[in-house]
Amino acid sequence: MISREHCLAADARDPLASLKSRFSLPDGVIYLDGNSLGVLPRSARERSLEVLEQEWGSGLIRSWNTAGWFELPGRLGNKLGRLLGAGEDEVVITDTTSLNLFKALAAAVRIQREQAPQRKVIVSERDNFPTDLYMMQGMIDFLQQGYELMLVDDDHPLESLLDDSVAVLALSHVNYRTGAMYDMAAVSRLAHRHGALVLWDLAHAAGAVPVDLNGAEADFAVGCTYKYLNGGPGSPAFIWVARRHQDRFWQPLSGWWGHAAPFAMQSDYQPAAGIRRYLCGTQPILSMSLVECGLDVALEADMQALREKSLALTDLFIQLVEARCGQHPLTLITPRDHAARGSHVSFRHPEGYAVMQALIARGVIGDYREPEVLRFGITPLYLGHADIWDAVEVLRDILDSRSWDRPEFRQRASVT
Amino acid sequence: MISREHCLAADARDPLASLKSRFSLPDGVIYLDGNSLGVLPRSARERSLEVLEQEWGSGLIRSWNTAGWFELPGRLGNKLGRLLGAGEDEVVITDTTSLNLFKALAAAVRIQREQAPQRKVIVSERDNFPTDLYMMQGMIDFLQQGYELMLVDDDHPLESLLDDSVAVLALSHVNYRTGAMYDMAAVSRLAHRHGALVLWDLAHAAGAVPVDLNGAEADFAVGCTYKYLNGGPGSPAFIWVARRHQDRFWQPLSGWWGHAAPFAMQSDYQPAAGIRRYLCGTQPILSMSLVECGLDVALEADMQALREKSLALTDLFIQLVEARCGQHPLTLITPRDHAARGSHVSFRHPEGYAVMQALIARGVIGDYREPEVLRFGITPLYLGHADIWDAVEVLRDILDSRSWDRPEFRQRASVT
After folding, report:
1. What is the pLDDT of residue B412?
2. Which value, to the nearest 10 degrees, does the dihedral of the CA atoms of residues B219, A252, B265, B72 take?
3. Helices and strands (DSSP H and E) totals, chain B
4. What are the residues facing A198 on neighbouring strands?
């Protein structure tokens, strides 16, 4: 059986261990929710004061030029692109994942409208991240042109829905609830073979697992920067568009920042060349600037080393929970197969909500997702093997003592 | 003739003079561009560190509840609503002005689609803020349902275009270039008399002039918080929807934050009741939190006193420029009529671009807008009469000495 000493020894050998010092983590907390909101990079304090006091306070309007605000979405997008297998000028940081999904979906719909107008079905999964489905529904409902959303249920093969009515296949690379990961290249090939375009949501993948968008010949991708990329609460999201599609159409959220000549104040929209046409309105410069702090730490880590550590830690977590909490009604819903696993691990428990509140009260912060799911994000940038051991020990104690069984842990908060 | 001493005496009597101390202004600068990007409230430093270190760094995911992140768009929206003649739960702070315009326009289009489907024209002005026109064009082009945009040219009466084909009249309350202001109540009545809904862009009005959305019986309004409201570069925008329209339809940018039960993780979108359905994705919490710093100063000022001072300063500016720079080819394009003037003043000059660069080099920061327009934002929260006197004196000197006539002042920057 693995002991805490084994874990400490593994940590001593960890080539990524030093990266933890780049983050400011609260005392007494084991943070297993970096897949929901990442942690604070130490460099963010200085950077935020610089943006606030120098760029805004002193530079004022001049900072659009002198502080490079106008270039920020593309400059940071290029940095992020290195983690996603994207080329230069293929990614911009902007808006929210929901909005970027709308842009990408609209572009895909327009491409199909021209090349295969009978394709009016958007295929996704019932278990996809809800806001993705809501945006698809919003677009379909507004267009009123006979588009429809077809949702695959768990364990139903995707291929059964892919026929010549399908315009777009829109999936999450890593499932937000289960942590299950698709083979992006294989699924993209499958979609293309059936004439569909493929749109990937990388919210639970970017910075967490190796991604190779161009290698997979994907068409569109979106995602967020506030989870594994540690960009800060609600930091702006990103969008990637394959170069072959970039200049084909303009997307309908066509604001000034995506205009070919944004300062000519023309009354007609003319899209900028390339990925910049996916920009829309003025971006929150302070929140966007801090994205760079988290990105820079992620770029220092070797992605293969990060992936190896992620798999080692998620394996360890599963193994310890099953060994030490095996008599409790916990059901693993995350794939054991490495190739099909992202960087978080989820177990169902009939009292999942209360168990998670009890964990949080003891400083082990994961999160709860309907239905009954205890979700634990395992972020190798700042977690070690001993953290996993300690977290499982708290879980074991809570389950053995039934200390989750208290009214205050059953009380639902407004935001869970 | 007015002297600098007269100006100093007026400043000594100014009941709003003390508010200047709430802002951090760079030395050696007279800032006449608060209509483009407002200045830094002194409280923003402490608040940003609190959000960064306590809310994000220590609170982490818990801050959605404990720091009230989930309530932020509505709580700040209610504060802002007091400046706009809006009721409780009629305004949210979120996304960008461009995106909020898309949401409002989509909602208006849906209302008309149901009640008057033959109405397919959106009327605006050729001189409206370009991004507003771009968003209208983006929607029309994507919908492909026969909608069209008709643009009124300067001095062409709006009424001539308002017939029973018009679905929506979309205007800026204060024109970004000229500073001309519409009578919101009269124009809203005119639109309604012709069966059109009216959508106001308040970007150059919110915090600058008294606005009474409910009093004017407007239908929709959007605007930004980073100009006269001093929310910070690219701080999130706002949207107001008249209560009578709020629950009629959902707008197509229907993300998780606008869902009736956002944490139930349902696969079907169900809009929240009221204005919350105009929220979409996760917001940039740091940038949004700082909106409150500027709002709190604006709420301390009496809006009527602010308006009186704004008119006094814009009158003074016009009077001094005409008296002291009268021999130069400057043409006032801002209305002299108080009822038709916002809070900025614009002059055309054939060498406007170079003149503005020369002014900026001397610390008088206004901005240039195509074509040939020198634009000066007059923000009474932190400007006094002597500032206006000093700014005009620099302008006079630059024009008299022709010191604008240098290659470096003709060189166009990437962002103007």
Report:
1. 83
2. -50
3. 13, 15
4. A169
> CB distance from B286 to chain A under 8 Å?
yes
For A321, phi then psi, to 5°, come to -65, -45
* CA A173 – CA A177 distance, rounded (Å): 12
Give the three-class secondary structure for B342: coil
Can you point out the beta strands (E) in B54-186?
A: 91-93, 121-125, 148-152, 166-172
The catalytic site residues of B sit at: 129, 201, 226-227, 375
Cα–Cα distance for residue pair A379/A361, rounded to 1 Å: 21
Angstrom distance (rounded) from CA A392 to CA A353: 17
Buried b (16+ CB within 10 A) or exposed e, B25-43: bbeebbbbbbbbbbbbbeb
Neighbouring CB atoms inside 10 A of A368's CB total 22
Residue B286 to residue A135, Cβ atoms within 8 A: no
pLDDT at position A290 over 60: yes
Question: What is the Cα–Cα distance from A405 to A401, expressed in whole angstroms?
Answer: 9
Interface size between A and B, measured as CB pairs under 8 A: 288
Q: Which residue of A has its CA nearest to B143?
A: A143
User: Do residues A287 and A232 make contact, with C-beta atoms less than 8 angstroms apart?
Assistant: yes
Q: What is the dihedral of CA B273, B276, B280, B285, to 10 degrees?
A: -150
Cα B201 to Cα B216: distance, rounded to the nearest angstrom? 14
Which regions of B153-274 does DSSP assign to beta strands (E)?
Answer: 166-172, 197-201, 220-223, 238-241
**pLDDT of chain B, 416 residues: tens digit per residue:** 899 999 999 999 999 999 999 999 999 999 999 999 999 999 999 999 999 999 999 999 999 999 999 999 999 999 999 999 999 999 999 999 999 999 999 999 999 999 999 999 999 999 999 999 999 999 999 999 999 999 998 778 888 899 999 999 999 999 999 999 999 999 999 999 999 999 999 999 999 999 999 999 999 999 999 999 999 999 999 999 999 999 988 999 999 999 999 999 999 999 999 999 999 999 999 999 999 999 999 999 999 999 999 999 999 999 999 999 999 999 999 999 999 999 999 999 999 999 999 999 999 999 999 899 999 999 999 999 999 999 999 999 999 999 999 999 998 876 65
Confidence of residue A154 (pLDDT cuts 50, 70, 90): confident
Is A375 a catalytic site residue?
A: yes
Q: Angle at CA B261, nearest 5°, toward B260 and B266?
A: 110
Q: Does B282 touch chain A (CB under 8 A)?
A: yes
A280 touches A94 (CB < 8 A): yes
* Beta pairing, strands A220-223 & A238-241: antiparallel
The amino acid sitting at A292 is E
Longest dimension (CA), chain A: 70
**Is residue A125's pLDDT more than 80?**
yes
| pLDDT (0 to 100) of residue B414 | 61
User: What is the rounded CA–CA span in Å between residue A257 and residue A196?
Assistant: 30
Please indicate whether, in this complex, the C-beta atoms of A49 and B48 are within 8 angstroms of each other. yes
The residue type found at A308 is E
Q: Residue B324 contacts by C-beta under 8 Å, 6 or more apart in sequence?
A: B392, B393, B395, B396
Segment (H or E) for B132: helix B130-143
Whether B235 and A290 lie within 8 Å, measured CB to CB: no
Q: Other C-beta atoms within 10 Å of B302: how many?
A: 11
3-state secondary structure A154-183: CCCCHHHHCCCCEEEEEEECECCCCCEECC
Q: Can you read off the two tokens belonging to residue A195?
A: 């004439």
The C-alpha atoms of residue A102 and residue A107 are separated, in whole angstroms, by 9
Question: Strand, helix or coil at B86?
Answer: coil
Residue B235 forms contact with A (CB below 8 Å): yes
Q: What is the mean pLDDT of residues A357-371?
A: 95
